[in-house]
């Protein structure tokens, strides 16, 4: 805006957009303006914060500069727009009421871990919120999980049922207070209350926290209502309790996360590097995967046979209080049976978790949006999100390009997220889960509607995966929209990596995952794409082998080993393989099934090749959770071994990588008595070697020297680390994931990026 | 055209091509058989073509299949099957002794179902123009008085039964193709349902709907019901009868018996008060010994079939668009 001459008085209308509500932005503006002796007012409306400010031109300029520079910790300022107005010569600076008219474009903050100020109050016997499990302020506390609508005001949150007492009201209205307009403000007199119940739902006497901690110490299983739903907890040092939780949850092997009282305990359990430490104490408060130091006293059944352990710190006052009383780390896992979504409604939880939990620690503040814990891991100097949910969603992923018309990207089938993109923001939803579970599909459909209302977006374009059986695809095809764009699964993976890195492409995309629907109707999953955001060509892939029995081959990695052996040895695998002895009754039939093609689509999947090797060398025949065989193969690897199997690469368009060569080499080593850890290492190194050589061929052909690595297979840090090192050494620039997961949780962002690029073209 | 596997693709084809041009109030109902009034009589009329490969399989062949399939379509409409037509398309060079075996089976099946083949046709096409032998049958039956079966009449609270173990015909045919060298004790369930239906309608005149679970299996029938009646069908996984050798073979093949074709099994939906009578009636009828209540109808979520799994989960059993493809990543 044009501002008048030196010393003159000006008045500006200022609009601030971004995450500026519920984060202390108005008191910050008020304090700043008052300090600078400027006149005017500030308020919230559906698109952010509106300000009118009047004073000497230099001071107003100083005000504008400080607006961005000194903004409060939880805020994110995207845009500041100014417009001159005639001065009114009024005095004083006021905070005015919210304006609810117009369209909602404001952004909702993610839930935030308890801040240091609140923790001090929690521990201060003189404070009126001493030991109050729902303490929060403008700088921390529940946000997204309690928001029902916008603007972000108490009546549109699940705190609406808790009228504030006079003391809280006074804080809420005091611009100098840390709780000024903090919507979840409450205290023991007016806010939610804890209750401890037995499995039948009867309240138990005494202090709920002490009672819950006592139950944990006694080896019982506790259901705890958290920010985004219910967790199941037990002592992490009691093998019987952890084993009991496993069997009641029908969760055989998948690792549990562990909540520890403090960083010092985390350090006793794991190697905490600086990136991991920053993640642990961050306001997102995710589960951080780190390498374990011995077993650190954690019971065997917590994370059986796993080199890594998922650790998180208390992120609500309730968790802080519980952990102080529990005396030791606790298992904190999703409140569900098997692969069902976590329970978040009180009645639902009471029913579904009653067969699992002995005791319930619950409260009367409703959860509006089911939100799982996020999972993250440090890779080199950056975080790598593996599940982006509580503490991150729904904060937008900022894009390096424009999305001209609003896009709804429907995501994949498993680990589903959806994404609403508009302008330079992509709002990726919290982790929704596996859509074939009906309650999950329901939260998917309801979640999309909730996001559309919250962000006031009416999508003009729907982007979706062309897999005909994905429920997200069926959702996309059933919904009225101006345009629909099918985005091939692995193109979406690479576009997701590009969006994550703000890189427009073109790149050589290496998309390695379990399965994705290919443009030829077969199952892809070991793909080299020459891709930009708008399109791709399939420049290379693993030579297809049958997936004998479809999904059954995914659940039973030994079938993949049989299919690979059958291909590698032309139907006559060498004698003496233990795998074939273990499946003496059925391996020939599985091989015939694959050869005959009945329910055995060809697949180029890299994930299935990991499965095959894992089964071949005796790591695991059957997977009890997604990716288990490959994860255990990585764990088994002898890291000192640097030998590599060599996969043939048949030139052509697309070029073909012979996965069977790796199988043949592994089978030969196995027969010669080479240790499984060495074979696993030579296989990993062989995969890396194949990636590097294939990328080199594609660089020669295309002139591209940037490689993007995406797909669930790149959650394998051994593979990722060695691939990045070798590619960098070969002169490639390498893009990896950080803000969104390399797995299918990142697919929706990639779909949105592709749709936007096609729209710009 | 990739419309072979049944399910959603076929449905789209039917709607976009056939109904668009041939649609009329009777056809539009898309029931297994058309209900007609002709000369004052309520009749049911249906037709079906049979292209099974191989032509002979344990438990039957294309001949009895062609009779039973059409008989069953009439029966589940609430009709007493009376007369059939039979049209044959034979590949040049097709062995006469094979044809004789097929026709002998047709005669036996017709006798068992109490119907007569009253008209027919034969065409021979050149080698490669057909795969041995195709049969089309059409059938006419008289509607059982007072019975009005319609999947649209199904309502929340109703109970869902199957008349016997599922998946047997489909698994048998897959194995009979011989590529797998799997020895399994499975035979096709091909059989006429007319006797069982008559017994059921006598015992429970208020049966809401019957469907024979042919292509796409029980899962497809349940989806048709859920969509037509705008209700939810909730099935208990443990309650679905599957013979152990069928379960084992299906596991090996990686297929879900719920989606596998039967040729002598039906799904019955009855009101809650009729459930026990219906079950007892089916079980006391020959071939219905393993009939079972497999689920219930609910109001919500409309149009969807849900499966309560062994672990207490709730999985969506959707209509397949085409061949099953893994969705797991
Ligand atoms: Fe994927
Ligand atoms: Mg028919
Ligand atoms: Zn705070
Ligand atoms: Zn209060």
Provide a descriptive summary of the structure in words:
The complex is a heterodimer of chains A (761) and B (329). Chain A has 761 residues and is α/β, with parallel strands linked by helices. Helix content of chain A is 32%, strand content 22%. In chain A, strands 6-13-7-8-12-9-11-10-14-15 form a ten-stranded mixed sheet, sandwiched between helices. In chain A, helix 5 packs across helix 9 (317-326) and helix 21 (676-702) packs across helix 22. The two termini of chain A are 32 Å apart. In chain A, 60% of the residues are buried. The model of chain A has no long low-confidence stretch (mean pLDDT 94). Helix content of chain B is 30%, strand content 26%. Chain B has eight helices and 14 strands. In chain B, helix 2 (62-75) runs parallel beside helix 3 and helix 5 runs antiparallel to helix 8 (275-284). The longest helix of chain B has 18 residues, at 96-113. The radius of gyration of chain B is 19 Å and the shape is globular. Classes of the chains: A alpha/beta (761), B alpha+beta (329). The interface between A and B is large, with 56 and 31 residues. The structure holds fe (iii) ion (FE), magnesium ion and zinc ion (ZN) (2 copies). One zinc ion binds next to helix 4 of chain A. Magnesium ion binds next to helix 2 of chain B.
Shape of chain A: globular
- Overall shape of chain B: globular
Helix content of chain B: 25-40%
Q: What does the largest sheet of chain A look like? A: 10 strands, mixed
Range of strand content of chain A: 15-25%
Find the CATH topology of the largest domain in chain B. Phosphoribosyl-aminoimidazole Synthetase, Chain A, domain 2
Strand order of the largest sheet of chain B: 9-11-8-12-10-13-14
Distance between the termini of chain A: 32 Å
Number of helices of chain A: 23
Please, how many domains of chain B?
2
Small molecules (ligands, ions, cofactors) in the structure: fe (iii) ion, magnesium ion, zinc ion
- Which superfamily, in CATH terms, is the homologous superfamily of the largest domain in chain B? PurM-like C-terminal domain
Q: For this entry, what is the oligomeric state of its chains?
A: heterodimer
Low-confidence stretches of chain B: 1-5
Order of helices and strands of chain B: HEEEEHEHEEEHHEHEHEHEEE
The CATH architecture of one domain in chain A: Alpha-Beta Complex
Task: Name the poorly predicted regions of chain A.
Answer: none
Q: How is the biggest beta sheet of chain B arranged?
A: 7 strands, mixed
